[in-house]
Amino acid sequence: MTQRPKYFDDIIGQEKVKEALLIAIKSAKARKDAMGHTLIDAPPGLGKTTFSIAIGNELGVKIKQVLGGNIKSFKDILPTITNMKENEVLFIDEIHRLSKKTTESLYTVLEDFRIDLPSENEKGEKEILSIDLPKFTVIGATTEVGKLPQPFRDRFKLKFSLELYDIISIAKIIKYNCNNLPISMTDEAIIRLAKASRGTPRIANALLEWVRDYSIAKCLSSVTADDLKASLEMRGIGMDGSTENDRRYVRLLKKVGKPVGISTLESALNIDRETIESVIEPFLLRLNIICKSSKGRMAL
Which CATH architecture has domain 247-299? Predict the structure, then answer.
């Protein structure tokens, strides 16, 4: 399997983000204090989790991870918060899936390192029980930063957006992981695979593992560009990284010939809205194949 980088030196690309984060990390370590709460925004597969884990490793502290979609109420995350130690990292993946009530309950945690819980005294009168917490760092990862309430976003002192990777960076990632799998590929095949990876390391690694399986099954000593093309065609993937869902989407827009709304696309393609908006459309927009407006989507 491909390996997840553990430290910043192992992470390829995103140089500006790494540089800024290293400043915050070095400052926190020098001050012997918790690093500021950090929000990382990016499309799927660009390394939000990798960066979050690397931050904990660079700080030399434990990192505890929870998934936003599994937290239905503040009570679900309360045991994790109360067990946090000084300067540790709490990583909340898909933080946009937290309910509004849960984010509001986290305000005092993020700002004052305090939990305020409703309770009753001996007389049955309602009061607020406040519990002080050690200072720790919350890292939130999201693909939909706009869904987070503004007051909640404002409590994250450090905000970063990861960019799609260029072909050279993706090629370096592929070459590095070729040694881990292991698999032999020509330089041309590596560049072609990078171009088919949609600027996303997760896609590059998934395709690389598929090409590895293909090369083993076909008894290939080294994968050439032609071998790569054949292996991707078997999966319905174009050399530009397009999938059958992308092509169905474009065919529908061309057939209709006028702006199409997202609800119509969902029904006609039988693809959920999140996949359309976070996977298919960003790719097609980047290639200038479609355009979006208040009236809907159109093929160019």
Answer: Orthogonal Bundle (1.10)
